[in-house]
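Ferric uptake regulation protein: structure tokens wanted.
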Amino acid sequence: MSIQQQLERAERLCEQRGVRFTPTRRHVFSLLAGQKGAVSAYELLDRLRELEPNAKPPTVYRALDFLLAQGFVHKVESLNAFLFCDHFAEHHPMQLLICTQCGDVIELHDQAINRAFEHQAEQHGFAITSQSIEAHGRCRRCRSETADS
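Answer:
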């Protein structure tokens, strides 16, 4: 799906939810949608300044908070970075595979992992309010490049 199609989908959702999709939020959304992998807030700020020269860190953080709340992006906690979510129209479990060599981030949506994790939490009397499952390693491409050398 193109960035424009993703943007139109997000606009419709915001309208349905009764929330404002401001120009700055649209810009940050588009920047993330065009990004392969995770990106830090300061990298986003540098790119946003090309569109909004007066943008400051709080501008990006407020936009990111909104995009997170709407489910349009995920926070990659261990990298302190953000990842665009192609599946933002639906609530879904999320697990991340993060390549320590190239930085690629693969988003998984495995209900079985999610159920097992929730079950373990319940077994320990723990109520999950927020969840981030991240695994670090090397992706297929980086592993094959190492094997080829």
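The beta strands are 73-76, 81-84, 95-99, 105-108, 133-137. The helical segments are 3-17, 23-33, 41-51, 57-69, 111-123, 140-148.

Cheers.
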